[in-house]
């Protein structure tokens, strides 16, 4: 569990808990911040090095630095794990081998970040919006 908490960047705040890994969790995890709850969920997901890991908006409450550290640790430590990342932020999937772009529930693009930027208007629009650029039609 300690190794998993390191991967999820949760060890530091867990170590500050009086009972460490046996610390109580209040209803809905209200004694933890949104980012801490997400890191605890990632910790639970990576215990035992799963063959498949599904992360659904798992870093949305993390700052950019924490998100980067979590992604780097997941890539390094779970090399043999197939990971599906469901995200609204392109920064969460930019390094993925393959990105699937959905628009209103319909698959509108598949490829790497570079391929989609070049060939997919929907992906490019999302990217431009998230990078603070004005989107042109």
From TrEMBL:
<dbReference type="InterPro" id="IPR039421">
    <property type="entry name" value="Type_1_exporter"/>
</dbReference>
<dbReference type="InterPro" id="IPR027417">
    <property type="entry name" value="P-loop_NTPase"/>
</dbReference>
<feature type="domain" description="ABC transporter">
    <location>
        <begin position="18"/>
        <end position="60"/>
    </location>
</feature>
<protein>
    <submittedName>
        <fullName>ABC transporter homolog Y</fullName>
    </submittedName>
</protein>
<dbReference type="InterPro" id="IPR003439">
    <property type="entry name" value="ABC_transporter-like_ATP-bd"/>
</dbReference>
<dbReference type="GO" id="GO:0015421">
    <property type="term" value="F:ABC-type oligopeptide transporter activity"/>
</dbReference>
<dbReference type="GO" id="GO:0005524">
    <property type="term" value="F:ATP binding"/>
</dbReference>
<dbReference type="GO" id="GO:0016887">
    <property type="term" value="F:ATP hydrolysis activity"/>
</dbReference>
<dbReference type="Pfam" id="PF00005">
    <property type="entry name" value="ABC_tran"/>
</dbReference>
């Amino acid at each position: 569990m300690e190794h998993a908490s390191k991967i999820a960047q949760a060890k530091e705040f867990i170590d500050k808990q009086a009972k460490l890994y046996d610390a109580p969790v209040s209803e809905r995890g209200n004694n933890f911040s949104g980012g801490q709850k997400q890191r605890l969920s990632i910790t639970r997901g990576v215990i035992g090095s799963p063959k498949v890991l599904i992360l659904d908006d798992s870093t949305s409450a993390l700052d950019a630095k924490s998100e980067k550290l979590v992604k780097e640790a997941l890539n390094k430590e779970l090399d043999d794990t197939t990971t599906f990342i469901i995200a609204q932020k392109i920064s969460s999937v930019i390094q993925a081998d393959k990105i699937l772009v959905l628009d209103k529930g319909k698959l509108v693009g598949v490829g790497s970040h570079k391929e989609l930027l070049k060939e997919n208007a929907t992906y490019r629009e999302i990217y431009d919006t998230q990078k603070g650029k004005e989107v042109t039609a």
